[in-house]
Amino acid sequence: MNDLMVGLDKKKRKKIGQAKNRLINNSKSDRVILFINKMLLIFVVIIVLVPLLYVLIGSFLQPQVLLTQGISFNPEHWSLDGYRRIFNDGSILRGFLNSIMYATGFTVISVGVTILAGYSLSVDGLVGKKFFMVFFLFTMFFNGGMVPTYLLVKELGLINTVWAVILPGAIGVWNIILARTYFKGLPNELKEAARIDGASDVKIFLSIILPLSKPIIFVLALYAFIGQWNSYFQAMIYLEDRSLYPLQLILREILIQNEVQPGMIADQLARAEMQRVAEMIKYSAIVVSSLPLLIMYPFFQKYFEKGVMVGSLK
What we know:
Blueprint: H1 2-25, H2 28-58, H3 63-68, H4 81-88, H5 90-122, H6 129-141, H7 146-155, H8 163-166, H9 173-184, H10 188-196, H11 201-212, H12 214-229, H13 233-238, H14 247-255, H15 271-313
Subcellular location: Cell membrane
Main location: membrane
Family: Belongs to the binding-protein-dependent transport system permease family.
């Protein structure tokens, strides 16, 4: 008897849900809005995917086909010569490893200092908290500029070193504010209960705050890694040794200055042939430089969405 009643209740709930869906589906305004949203999403997806597919397919095409016919889906026109020349060239591989080193070091320092500063500013009992907030906010609107920054880096002896790329700009005030907002949204009852149990501030931070802060940590790490990975300006200013160049600076030479190293193209090739091969190398270099971000983002996506929403709403 009870099973029969449960079955009837399920059927009733199902019919009620279907009736609600019919009412929603019959709403003309809702259907218009949903149709417009779908069209906009499809348009945005096309705008994003078309250049990506063009570059990806272009990196596999033979140079003469790419310049004369454009994109071709004929397997006979495809070639791995661009990737072979990239991986055989020492400068691009060295730049790739340098970029990983710069981005990793920058991320560790940036996230570490940002988390410590954000948590400190979220504590109610911090002496001088308003002064520090005003001081940090002041730097968002006013700074010394490029020349004083260069002179400071030079006086510190960081020119033409790894630290010249990692240290300047490692601290972002906006990231500190984002971390502070997230920490202020955590329940104070957890910290109070830990203090009652005799836990120190360091113990509370390491054992309670950090485990609850994975979303914001991953968000800050993603921001820092992507920002440093795509950066080339600081390396262009502070680095003189080509062996320290990041991948983006080498890629800039290939894309903008059209400078391809002799090791990537044989010396006996004619100038026209060099231009055709250089065109293929450009697309291949773009794909190689984008791979780390494309591989990393799916693993960070859930933390990214959660951290941004929590940090913005709370």
